[in-house]
Amino acid sequence: MEVLYEDNHIIIVNKTCSEIVQGDKTGDKPLSEIVQDYIKEKYNKPGNVFIGVVHRLDRPVSGLVVFAKTSKALSRLNEMFRVHNLSKKYWAIVKNCPPKEEDFLTNYLVRNEKLNKTFVYDERVPNSKKSNLSYKVIGKTDNYYLLEIDLMTGRHHQIRSQLAHIGCPIKGDLKYGFARSNKDGGISLHARMIKFTHPVSKQEIEVIAPVPKDDVLWQEFERQSFDNTKNI
To answer: Is the pLDDT score of 62 beyond 60?
Structure first.
């Protein structure tokens, strides 16, 4: 487990595409319990260790996940996520060039729980939720494009479904129309950055999650991003 940030109230870890954040019907050990074990061992804590799940990532998605280590932090972080009083950026690899280099997308999403899939509409329909994100192209190779996504609302499969709706399904995402799966079974969507005011200390926190180390394409895009930053 890769810990990206930790203090008395918060721990942020870098999730792999094979891990689940919370327990589900698979019975696989969730990341929340792995974090509990880590804290118990590191600090030699007897009995149960408090860990609060603040938000979730789909299993095939990699990147940063925030957990609360105290009930005070959990309640305040929950409210922060609820009203979107923070900044979150995701990276997504797509094969098709988007219609515009950058754009703001507003759609209406309907979740089908039986299919575990979200359907996208351009106009409001019954049971739909208004969903906003912006994207921009920040890298490219001969065959793929790297998009940086600023997520304004947190809907079920929002990035996956909205990008597919504009003809840019995420690499490896069979559910939303990509032609083939990734070797690791994940999809090329990565929770890259989060910036927020610490719920207790009130300091500004910004955390960046390194991309998967065993993926050559991800490594190439991270190198491009680093080079672009140096040239600014």
So the answer is: yes
144: confidence class by pLDDT, cuts 50, 70, 90: very high
Over the stretch 98-139, which tens digit does the pLDDT of each residue have?
Answer: 999 999 999 999 999 999 999 999 999 999 999 999 999 999
Global pTM?
0.93
Selecting from 3.30.930.10, 2.60.40.3600, 6.10.140.1670, 3.30.2350.10, what CATH number does the domain 2-231 have?
3.30.2350.10
> How does DSSP assign the chain, residue by residue?
-EEEEE-SSEEEEEE-TT--SS--TT-PPPHHHHHHHHHHHHTT--S----EE-----TT-EEEEEEESSHHHHHHHHHHHHTT-SEEEEEEEESSPPSSSEEEEEEEEEEETTTTEEEEESS--TT-EEEEEEEEEEEE-SS-EEEEEEESS--TTHHHHHHHHTT-PBTT-GGGT-SS--TTS--SEEEEEEEEE-TTT--EEEEEPPPPTT-HHHHHHHHHHHHHHHH-
Domain boundaries, the chain: 2-231
